[in-house]
Automatic annotation (TrEMBL):
Name this protein carries in UniProt: OFA family oxalate/formate antiporter-like MFS transporter
NCBIfam families per UniProt: oxa_formateAnti
One annotated GO molecular function: oxalate transmembrane transporter activity
Transmembrane segments: 20-40, 60-80, 87-106, 112-132, 144-169, 175-195, 228-251, 305-322, 328-347, 368-386, 392-412
Keywords: Membrane, Transmembrane, Transmembrane helix
Amino acid sequence: MISSTDGAVTAAPLRTGFRWLQLVMGIVCMAMIANLQYGWTLFVDPIDAAHHWGRAAIQLAFTIFVVTETWLVPVEAWFVDKYGPRIVIMFGGVMIALSWVLNSYADSLTLLYAAAVVGGMGAGAVYGTCVGNALKWFPDRRGLAAGATAAGFGAGAALTIVPIATMIASSGYQQAFLTFGIGQGLIVFVLAFFIQPPRISIPPRKKQLNLPQTKIDFTPPQVLRSPIFWVMYLVFVMVASGGLMTAAQIGPIAHDYKIADTPVTLAGFQMAALTFAISLDRIFDGFGRPFFGWVSDTIGREHTMFIAFGTAAVMLLTLSAYGQNPIVFVLATAVYFGVFGEIYSLFPATCGDTFGSKFATTNNGMLYTAKGTASLLVPLASVISATYGWKAVFVVAVALNATAALMALFVIKPLRRSFILGKEAESADTATGSAKTETA
């Protein structure tokens, strides 16, 4: 069965080592787009200091980026299904480079917002394609594959946070945008030449009772008509909103708490609290995505969601109460991002399990737009904090995560199993009826 309209000429053969190589290249591509989201917080205050546009206006660029990145993924996924992943990832590489080049020259909010649109298109092209390709190559290890791919996005900024912060301090934020933008885009463009989809569909190795997987490949219109999709979408929005707010606002939060430049020493390392927090956040985020993906392959998607969302609520509550302590700030944000990032491994894996592999790129792309919806709440966090303080923002995020944890066990789990078993029963009844008709 051909998984892409590329056909046998461009699609890759089924070789165990080859699919792991595809996974690694996808991870590297994801690492190259990570700074567009997770490195952004380093630029907010320097941009404001240079142009005095205000944090809320500058953070609107972040929201525009995330909305564009996520809401266009289904369209980009259609191009992947029609033309293959190579051309889409090449396009992404060009666009992410162009975005940061534009940022380096932006002397108005209009140009800053335009750069955010360009960057969102590029990042979405890379993100949606790489995750979708991983789901197709690893239906037997969807949680691990999606988690490892998403880890590139989560941890990709870890190695470059310090160099970017150093360049901003020494050469200005414009030079940092220009240098890292061109470098990141070039690496993605080159790797795009080697990324391919599998030639044939790869069946799961075994059936697991705690990990139900559909035998039916649902088309995108069928997925959009299913209630379970929208329940998953809602929970995704609830959890993603807190994480995006924290990722975008961690710099302003640290400055408002007056701990951004406070030296923190942990495990023999010492650096400013904000830089330490962001670096550690990326490491924990990157580790958490494949780890929780692997856990979900073992104990089930919903049980893993409950553990992760519940832990996130506890960490946000800790930040609300004790976040002005620099050590607590660094450790609590690290643990929080360690459990937050798993939404980018669990939801793609759950989507593939529920709706099948054939249209996994497009179906997951539709679910991924929930991140864009959640990003609309990021500027609202600035407004709430200005009126009620950051504690109020954290309390709202705690409530959303706690509710999402309960919904995972008591709503998503039974509804998803009912959907899979019900559709398979309908399919079996239809096949039986057809056989009887032919016999008659």
